[in-house]
Amino acid sequence: MILELDGVHAFYGEAHILHGVSLAVAEGERVALVGRNGVGKTTTVNAVLGLVRVRAGAVRFHGAAQTLPLRPYRAARAGIAVVVQGQRILPNLTVRENLPLGAAVRRPGPWTLASVCAMFPILAERAATPGTALSGGQQQMLAIGRALMANPDLLILDEPSEGLAPVVVDELGEALDRLATREGTALLLIEQHLGLIRRAARQFHAMAKGRIVASGPVAGLDEAVLHEHLGV
Ligand SMILES: Nc1ncnc2c1ncn2[C@@H]1O[C@H](COP(=O)(O)OP(=O)(O)OP(=O)(O)O)[C@@H](O)[C@H]1O
User: What InterPro entries does the record point to (predicted)?
Assistant: First the structure.
């Protein structure tokens, strides 16, 4: 397993947000974490990164139990890269300058400037453009490309479809499918967009009120489950 959360309880101050969350992502696996707004999906990512206090339960990277408090650099060194909600593209840097920022904790692997640009040709075309002058979809590709520059075993994406036009969400789904299929990069996808979940993920966990309440193959995400957990 690349990542395991085992009965994790997490708090913002005294606010108890995660109530015993357990989930795991194995090598090459593609997992979606779904649920309505405010159920604790981003907090789960923050627990992995040590950005929220984990008071009980275990977090393991490649089978190694992490001592508390967790720290973001430990996840990075363990090969876990995160694309946060609402990308953080540095405004004064061009596309070409933004990409290497993801390589600070670089591991050996297939991703280089050249292979990232082959995956997302728009990044090569707009290499000299300031990152924040890109469209929302292009900025999302840049954020993903930058994360890949670390050569992660696991890429965690927090609602990458947010604010994107439907045609761009389709492109994003295709890109995630390709990178998972070709390079075997595992995915943990926090999403509400069913089309993207179906394209990019194979397994799902549904969250409600800080707990995992349903899990299974994405193929079995039926209307009843979606209605209950996604409100669609
Ligand atoms: N920094 C914080 N301090 C206190 N409470 C917080 C903080 N961040 C989030 N929360 C609360 O924690 C709960 C879970 O939030 P979280 O962001 O994990 O939800 P989510 O499922 O990712 O939803 P969304 O899609 O809206 O981000 C919410 O009730 C939220 O109000």
Answer: AAA+_ATPase, ABC_transporter-like_ATP-bd, ABC_transporter-like_CS, BCAA_Transport_ATP-bd_LivF, P-loop_NTPase
